[in-house]
Design goal:
Length: about 160
């Protein structure tokens, strides 16, 4: 009797779990951003030119929902790659002049993080618009690191 009840309960629970539609997550997480940065660093080390092209196109998993890779030239502090389709016009812009809507000089903070030893990851908080039509700045944190002659990062929106 108890055995039949346990089997029935387990079967019902399995049916409920298997038929429940999982909620679709629309925003990337800090964990996913950090994982994408790790993947981006590996891609740059393997073939920098190909990696920058993939980052700019958002291909090969380097653009996922609101997560994307961005990279700057260490020698000039210029943006050389961005997976954010709303920011393509910023390619070639000077990182060190970046100021968010709240007046924070986040560009200088990211630049300082790029000067740390290669592989050291720093988290920088600032306000920035999400990819898409809405240009309202929202809280964002980016994981950034130096990789060779580039500084690269992936941010997530809080």
């Amino acid at each position: 009797m108890i055995r039949s009840f346990v089997i029935a309960a387990m079967s019902a629970a399995a049916l409920c779990v298997s038929t429940a539609a999982p909620a679709q997550q629309t925003e990337g997480t800090a964990f996913e951003a950090r994982a994408m940065l790790t993947k981006a660093v590996a891609a740059v080390k393997e073939d920098k030119t190909k990696a920058l092209d993939m980052f700019n196109k958002g291909g090969s998993g380097f653009r996922d929902r609101d997560l994307y890779v961005f990279c700057h030239s260490i020698s000039e502090a210029k943006l050389v790659a961005t997976g954010n389709p709303n920011r393509k016009q910023e390619l070639g812009s000077d990182l060190k002049t970046g100021v968010d809507a709240g007046g924070k000089h986040f560009g200088a903070e990211i630049w300082a993080a790029y000067q740390k030893p290669e592989g050291q990851v720093t988290e920088v908080d600032y306000l920035y618009p999400k990819p898409g039509a809405d240009k309202t700045p929202v809280a964002k944190a980016s994981f950034v690191t130096r990789v060779g002659d580039l500084g690269c990062g992936v941010g997530y929106y809080k």
